[in-house]
Amino acid sequence: DRTSDYKFGAASFVGMYGDEALDLVKELHRARWLPAYREEVIKRVAKEIEILVNMIEKSLEAQNFEVSEAQIACGLIVHWQSVLYNKRCILAYLNHRVNLVKQLWWDQGGVLPNEIRQNLSSNELQFFDEYGRLMRIYQNVMDVDINLDQEPPTSLFIEVRVLRPCGTIQTDCGPITLNEHSTHLVRRRDVELLIRQGALEQIS
């Protein structure tokens, strides 16, 4: 009968509940930055949730929504808690990635390096672009560059070393050519974004 089918189904799935969802969270914890988006794993977890919900619904229908057997009740609780566990893991995974994507905008000034771009999903790329658009609107309305002075400066001028060629930039004191390994005394606000992008390093 349908009740025995449910019991067999419950036994056949034991040991797999939440494993892949937990692996996603562990991967984020181990990663130094932002690992590649795992779309196929997300789909498999969503399928697992769908299977669990269907099993719960079939069991309740077979019992006319009045569960009296302890074995059935325990199975329902295990399956429902597994659904919630999977959802929490997936939401934690997606929320953490969204927060990192927002931080990327502040760190990279709205320009994503290719090695980072390829790790984002299409939805994350769209979010990054839209987040940047809203930030630019805010900057235009308020007439302020919110990417500057993210940390309180200790002095107006700093000495920097060029880690990779950046060409010529325009500063308040005139143009400066940033050749690799050269050092310059510049206003912090003129090069702060390049420092965050890893093109320059502050040496004083």
UniProtKB/TrEMBL annotation:
Ranges in a coiled coil: none
Chief location category: nucleus
Taxonomy, superkingdom: Eukaryota
Keyword 4Fe-4S recorded: no
Domain DNA replication complex GINS protein PSF1 C-terminal: 156-203
Localization annotation: Nucleus
Domain GINS subunit: 72-139
Any GO BP: DNA strand elongation involved in mitotic DNA replication
Keyword Nucleotide-binding: no
Matching Pfam families: PSF1_C (PF24997), Sld5 (PF05916)
Keyword field: DNA replication, Nucleus
Database matches in SUPFAM superfamilies: GINS helical bundle-like
UniProt family annotation: Belongs to the GINS1/PSF1 family.
Protein name from the UniProt record: GINS subunit domain-containing protein
